[in-house]
Amino acid sequence: MAAGFKWWDLLHNDFLTHNGHISAGLVGASVLVAGGAAYAIAAPRVNLKTAQDESFIPSPRFGLRTTWEIIGEFVQGTARDIVGPHYHKYYPLLLFIFVWTLLHNLLGSLPGLGSATDNINTTFAMGVSVFLYYNFMGFRENGVHYLEQFTGHLHGLLLLLLGPVMFVIETISHMIRPLTLGIRLRTNIYADHEVHGTIMGMLSDMAHGLSEKFGAVGHVIGFTIEAIAPVPILLLGLLVCVIQAFVFTLLTMIYIGLATAHEEH
After folding, report:
1. What is this structure's pTM?
2. What is the mean pLDDT of residues 63-88?
3. Which one of 55, 69, 85, 192 has the minimum C-beta count within 10 Å?
């Protein structure tokens, strides 16, 4: 997490100050809870038996409810395609992962806040959680037959000859998944925030230099540059935040889909 002033420094709590990813996680969780509560209040109470058709028509105005619905439909459609027809069991978790990751990616771009996802402790914990979850669901859905994924679904003589080798290879492949999930997310978000911070610092120095050299005219020019030049960087950073949240969620979908697929036995 980039150095500098953070709003939680005002609490004068050494633990929060020295563990910025935890502080950022608490801020993100608070925002998520508040957003969910606001959506629950804004969304209409619809009774499937008594509601009119108009109750299910999306609002023409773009607001909080519409934003949540767009995100939900996007994750739902992707999960249906990747996981399969039984995706609905895992949809709440997948939606939470996408929203949680995207929210924390974006918080790091706001002044005085930080991102929990640019810290390897957070992203590795997220990766381990996904690893434990999809393996648990794999055993739950397929029982001991889930272990066949670790032997390449070999049978008979091939299982005896190549099974042990395949088991070692597949085990290593599965064990590195939480690490690659965590490193990929953390590296991209950390790099995005560092590039943003560096460019903003350079623009600030440039504006200060113009102000000192050319006085009021330089100050106006410097202020204009400092206000306009970061826009493309901010848009690029926003794109990176969305893409990385999607990639993490997509890989989670793939792992769950592979683990819970029902094979013919």
Report:
1. 0.80
2. 85
3. 85
